[in-house]
Amino acid sequence: MTASAWIKSVVVCADDYAVNAPTSQGIVALSVLGRLSATSVMALSPRWGQDAPALREVRERVDVGLHLDWTSTFAQHAGFGRSLGGVMWRSWSGGFRGADVRDAIQRQFDAFEMHWHAPPDHVDGHQHVQQFAGLREALCDVLLRRYGAQQPRPWLRVSRVAQVGLKAQVITAMGAHALQAWAQQHDWPCVAPLLGAYGFDGNLNDYRQRMQRWLLDVPVADQAALIMCHPASSAAADDEIGPARAREFAYLASHDFVQDLRDAGVRLVRGSEPWKRT
Known about the structure:
TIM Barrel, nine-stranded parallel sheet, alpha/beta, globular
């Protein structure tokens, strides 16, 4: 397929950088191969400081952003995290208010910048918490204060899921439209819709078939969609989705992924760089 035949563009973002060693290693390896265009960092992880230098080696290949966290063990050890169900309930009940919420978000930006020595290229959320009510407003306030005067601003992932199904509907219902409306009001760059959500089940061929469907679902538009992924070079013993991470890595590192991109007429782009569909 020639360059003029590309009809769709997508940001392929690997989540959870620094969650464990195999994940960081896998994301760097895929970045070297040109199979990713973004990654999101769990800045509360004690690994972030030691894993940042390897990511700097591929800085010109991928956008590097903050994976806002409220549900991992890192967030719980930091004193404010809780289970996903607990975060969703607190969001629904209006419990995310006050300076302590903004302070916890500020701490994550500070931790990111301490080792990256630059602002994030983008911001998204572990289990989509960036758009939950209460957290969303606090995040938007922090973004305006920290980066409102800079250009380019960090782009936002809007988890408006383009797939059908209950999980997709719940993800979208938890504030996607409100976050996108805020971005439009403040002329803040964002990338949507989101693809790549599944139950981390199945085998390698199942994941390829899912990716083929996601690539076909990328809209023909003058802006990019986003496919999230969670690859790792191997399955860490204490990682509940470790086997799925290893399968994703095997597929993304393969020629099959390159062929599937070509067959779907999709090219990888970075959300931080201006581009035009050709």
